[in-house]
Automatic annotation (TrEMBL):
It comes from the Eukaryota. Keywords: Coiled coil. The lineage of its organism: Eukaryota, Fungi, Dikarya, Basidiomycota, Agaricomycotina. It comes from Mycena metata. InterPro entries: F-box-like_dom_sf, F-box_dom, LRR_dom_sf. This is F-box domain-containing protein. Residues 50-84 form a coiled coil. The keyword Chloroplast does not apply. Residues 97-149 form the F-box domain. Gene3D superfamilies: 1.20.1280.50, Ribonuclease Inhibitor.
Length: 506
């Protein structure tokens, strides 16, 4: 077989046309190391040698090109085989064999909740549509993937088109709506969303008072709405006169509402005089957050609640006093000063209270350090006045160890099951009391930050062992990723049945 017709594409069958001199010898090597001028005869012989080497270089270049063509052909063949194998592996892959319902469940996990003001939209589902025809068909016909309708996405083109598409593809699935009236195209998309109001299950709304008036005065109903996060600004408040307020039937019947987060830039009572605010089913709520709440609104709202309640006052609240009895089961303070905590506790009576959390904003910590008011007596009087039975207590305030022992020794705290103490309240004195005085005898879990109170590992271990097996869970904070308890101690405690969890921040 000739060299040009070889089918093997292999140098073993297709060698070079001539034998190459790969190690040529110089006819006059001594001339290379001197400045001597060669004779005519020597010059002719050297030129002849150079021509031979040039021919060999040309032959090698030709051989390289031939072998490169062979390599290219082999690589092409390998690519074809790899593509063939890849295509056929897809036929027998586990993903291809997944039932549709499991595939839809996986898709749902891909569209994780991004936060209270950001929900998956069409652009988030799009990558799933581009994988294969089956994935496109599955994703586009799965109502649950299109239930998050977010009208706040930046630079959304044709918002009406996208909202209409999502409403169509979501079929009868319950909807999670995120909507701001300040978003481009809001005036066009709101009627579409209201037409689907019976399917609203969760709503995150940012509205002006005029928007509230128009929305709640509509004839649409929201019978399936379970979670509502509504922020009402004060924009245009002065332009709405009390005489314009009209009955608002839209929210008169929302029997399914369980969670309410209310952001108010204006007093609730002032807004109610100007717009038809919804008649929220306060007593049926399981959870309520009052963010940026005005002091004047607390006496009107708290008596109506029986839910777990978080209170975030409007900026730095002024001193106040009133007397209110509330059926709330949990009370959490946030972004507030010690004065606000003291004033509200002095004004409240909560016989159904099970959980009390005082967690101030760290940026306001200076207020907690400089005020002289005795928060310990305020808390004790509040608990006695309420005659409640706490099961969970979270304190992130500066309280002397002896004062905290007094709080934990009160009758209303005797049945405590869960205790969280920050570094500002924890002390060696308190740990000793937990060992020797039998405080909170039913305590099951303890969350603590021991780094600033000079506790030793031996003291913490002694406290845990003295209260085991009733106390079975310890959450202990790390400091700069350093563990307070050695790994050997953690392992020993776990062998005894104690659950030790470490957490922290770098």
């Amino acid at each position: 077989m000739g060299q040009n017709t070889c089918e093997h594409l292999c140098s073993e069958h297709c060698g070079p046309a001539k034998k190459l001199e790969l190690n040529p010898r110089s006819p006059y090597p001594e001339l290379l190391l001197s400045n001597a001028i060669p004779s005519d005869l020597q010059a002719q012989e050297i030129k002849k040698t150079i021509r031979g080497v040039d021919e060999d270089i040309g032959a090698l270049n030709a051989e390289i090109k031939r072998l490169q063509r062979s390599m290219d052909a082999l690589i092409a063949q390998r690519t074809d085989l790899e593509r063939f194998a890849h295509d056929h592996r897809g036929v027998v892959s586990v993903v291809r064999c997944l039932p549709r319902d499991i595939l839809v469940e996986i898709f749902g996990h891909c569209l994780r909740d991004c936060g209270p003001w950001s929900r998956p939209g069409p652009s988030d589902v799009k990558p799933l549509l581009l994988v294969s025809r089956r994935w496109h068909s599955t994703a586009s016909t799965s109502p649950g993937l299109w239930r998050y309708i977010d009208g706040t996405k930046p630079k959304m083109q044709s918002p009406t088109k996208y909202v209409s598409m999502q409403l169509e593809r979501s079929a009868d699935a319950p909807l999670s709506i995120t909507f701001r009236t300040s978003t481009d195209g809001a005036a066009q998309t709101l009627p579409l969303l209201l037409d689907a109001s019976p399917r609203w299950e969760e709503a995150h709304l940012s509205l002006t008072p005029a928007d509230v008036r128009d929305l709640f005065a509509s004839t649409h109903a929201f019978p399936a709405l379970k979670k509502l996060n509504i922020a009402i600004s004060r924009d245009g408040m002065a332009d709405i006169h009390p005489s314009e307020a009209a009955p608002g039937p839209a929210f008169e019947s929302i029997p399914a509402l369980e969670e309410l987060t209310l952001w108010m830039d204006s007093r609730f009572v002032d807004l109610a005089q100007r717009v038809a605010l919804p008649r929220f089913p306060w007593s049926r709520l399981r959870r309520c957050e009052l963010r940026r709440v005005h002091i004047e609104d607390l006496p009107r709202i708290l008596p109506l609640l029986s839910a777990d309640t978080r209170v975030y006052p409007m900026d730095i609240a002024p001193r106040f006093t009133f007397s209110v009895k509330s059926r709330i089961r949990a009370l959490e303070f946030g972004h507030c000063t010690r004065e606000f905590v003291a004033d509200l506790l002095n004004s409240l009576s909560t016989p159904s209270l099970k959980k009390l959390s005082i967690i101030p904003d760290r940026h306001l910590s200076s207020h907690f350090e400089t005020l002289d008011e005795d928060l310990t007596s305020v808390i004790i009087l509040f608990l006695r006045r309420s005659a409640c039975a706490l099961t969970s207590l979270h304190l992130d305030v500066t309280i002397p160890g002896c004062d905290l022992i007094t709080i934990l020794g009160s009758l209303e705290v005797r049945g405590l099951l869960h205790l969280t103490i920050s570094e500002r309240a924890l002390s060696a004195e308190l740990v000793d009391a937990l060992i020797t005085h039998g405080l909170v005898p039913h305590l099951q879990s303890l969350d603590m930050d021991p780094w600033l109170c000079r506790l030793t590992e031996a003291t913490v271990v002694a406290m845990l062992e003295s209260r085991h097996p009733v106390l079975h869970t310890l959450r202990i904070r790390q400091h700069k990723m350093n563990s307070f308890l050695s790994q050997a101690t953690v392992n020993e405690l776990r062998e005894k049945g104690l659950e030790v969890l470490e957490y922290g921040f770098s």
